[in-house]
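Input record (Table S2, row 368):
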Amino acid sequence: MELKIVMKSFKPGELWLDDNGVHLNAHGGGILFHQGKYFWYGEHKIEGQAGNKAMVGVHVYSSKNLYDWKDEGIALEVSENQTNEIAKGCILERPKVVFCEKTNKFVMWFHLEYRETGYQTARSGIAVSDSPTGSFEFVRSLRPNAGFYPQNVSDDWKKPLTEKETEDLKTLNIGGGSVPYYPKNLIFRRDFTEGQMARDMTLFVDDDRTAYHIYSSESNGTLHIAELTEDYLFHSGRFIRIMPGRYNEAPAMMKHNGRYFIFASDCTGWAPNTMRLLVSDSIFGEWEEVGNPCQGTGSQVANSFESQPTFILPVQGKTDAFIYLGDRWRPNHAIDGRYIWLPIQFRHGFPIIEWFDEWDLSFFKVGS
Ligand code: GAL
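Output record (beta-D-galactopyranose complex):
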């Protein structure tokens, strides 16, 4: 007799088996709801440290209830051809898929680092499919917004670097807690012609169906929010930079009661750190950092319950129901990375996250 695995609750951090009894393999993922089904896309990892590189591609699962996931296979495969931009062994992270109503296409964006370049290429990849489960076809990779200045900088900064600034930038050692300081006005100007650096990322589709690409740029020190074109295949050239020098990574966006929120992490590689919540009344408005959304007692509050954000999932058919999706990375055995899903609660209009060993969707009230 066939053994059917039926789940009735979420158990953050535990193994989570698919319909074949295999731990879900969709890390750094995001979820699309389409025609009554959820589709979970994420990085397919393999055993050991080798799993930190893309040896297979982007895995997709489907579900009607968010507990039980059907393996739908590999949505986007890496290429065996070593000259391909998404060659096996490249770094392909944080894939997100949105549906474009205008073109009837499923559009995937992801962070791409060419093979054998470490994390130096800082590019965005784009792939397209006619069906949510693929197969997705790789379209191109790019550096965002080449030839455009951000909307929210003064005219003084909408200029190429001087020779002295170019020299200054070369001598700066830019990294988390950079030495001697983070050059807030240099990197995006250096990258004006070739396009902006883009690593950790998410996509967000607003109520008017305008899509945005939110990515860690300028050597991870600054978040960019960039509008996409109507077909979601390019940037429109309209973008802003937020929190320069704050090193926000792993952005995940949600909207609630007309306000936009970004959950982000600090920049410490695979190791968890303290989460940050950013808020704004409009997407291209003034963003403010309002502290750590993880609440409760215990040391886990300071390390985001040992996770890093990847997505905020609006639950269908429920009011004010959102789930925090985070990754508990296992860089020494990447395939064993765990998923931290926790319900979002609201305190004074702001989203917060508390730990639960086990919880289910009855946590949320039924929508009207
Ligand atoms: C993290 C990032 C991950 C991955 C990792 C590599 O900060 O969020 O997606 O890039 O660094 O060290």
